[in-house]
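RETRY 2/3 - previous attempt timed out on the joint model. Re-submitting the same 510-residue input unchanged.
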Amino acid sequence: MAVTFSLPTVLARLADGQSTIEATGVTLGDVVAQIADRFPRLAPRLRDERGGPYPFVTFYLNDEDIRFRNGFDTPVTEGDEITVVAAIAGG
Amino acid sequence: MTTALAPELEQALRVLPQRCRLCGTHHAPAPEAVCGECLGPLEPSYDPDRPLPDAAIIAARPANLWRYREWLPFEGEPTLSLDSGFTPLVESPALARRLGVARAWLKNDAVSHPSLSFKDRVVATAINAARALGLETVGCASTGNLANAVAAQAARAGLPAWIFIPHDLELGKVVGTAVYGPRLVRVRGSYDDVNRLCAQAADRYGWGLVNINLRGYYGEGSKTVAFEICEQLGWRSPTAVVAPMAGGSLVTKLEKGFAEFARAGLVSGPLPRLYGAQAAGCAPIVRLVESGGEQVEPVLPDTIARSIAIGNPADGGFAAKAIRGSGGWVAAVPDADIVAGIRLLAETTGIFTETAGGATVAGALTLAQGGRFRADDEVVLCITGNGLKTVEALQGALPESPVIAPRLRELEALHGRDL
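RETRY 2/3 succeeded.
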């Protein structure tokens, strides 16, 4: 499945300045793994040592926080938009 | 009210550099809240050897939050929002009796200038940071109170503001923002959805979104609640403080503020135990403390307490650590108790608070019933917002007022009935 992966500026710096990346995978974890392979400096910012997301980095699949789905095991479908947001705040 | 800073501060305003709370990396002053190394949150870095004022010097300064400026993240003279802070600390013997403690006070930010919530404090620091960093547009993601504060203070400063709120907020919060003339955008979704959009907007447009990319500077304003409590108690700490929790920042800044005053020798004795209250319909930090875990599990909020309905609290882990470390605890209260808490505070103390304040009062009662307070405790409850903003919460809860003709006979009939 081809999806769009959007990064905040703070992470895009580690992906050759690209804030939007096209990638493929069956699950979100697959997509993250593919992007991590393509951008090794970005890899440790997306996944912790156990391969899971960090508490300060939130992944949204379309409009939904993946913690309400199945984390990195959540399946993706063609055209999905994945958005990475760092450390959001209180209001 | 017009106030001025003391003449000793006569230099252009600069913000302090920041440091990552997780990995310690140093960051030059910038509208950034996230560490490029580990994505942890940034906070201002103070010179530990800077000269600090004593109690007499502070007490002689104008009655606003800038009297504590050595603990705020600036060098030089703030130019905006000089009138916020120094709200009343109101003693309530009736509430003390209900809680079974020696004394109880309300830190009453329901009457904060200019927008009637404690968010005036954080916006006062953030808007000065925006000015110091040369940002020409400010804004925020908000559950209501922050929207009011940013809109009001941006209007006074002459700065354009983009303000984002959930589409279905209480009318008072919407009107209390729109009246100042910002670009107010109502987003279909929860506060957490709004927050995500704002994180992307700050990244895209370079605005100073006070609780997003100015968050490190913004949060420091909350410490002034702790500073004022100490000063208003006669330069001492209470034994316990109860605060509402949304994103969790206030509790962490209370901890920091009390510790900073102790370190400066302005107060002595043990630091207060910190207690946090949330609505049962949105209690991720309460659940984290109760479970003993380290990582917040986000929830989908379902409560009338919209101002604290944050399902994904960014500072939840830090708040839980502060509460556990202080020897305090947490309480989650149902909506009916929140309404009862609003009414109890009004009827016993003459303060009309919004739903977050109702959660604080109800939380304190729950904690008291659970044996969390001591008979000799001196407790401060943080009342963070004004009840006129959330009158919807009281619909149907108050007795209907009788309507009579302007005739004494009809009044006598009522009077007799009351007897």
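The interface with chain B takes residues 6, 8-11, 13, 45, 54-58, 60, 63, 65, 67-68, 83, 85-91 of chain A (CB under 8 Å). Closing ticket.
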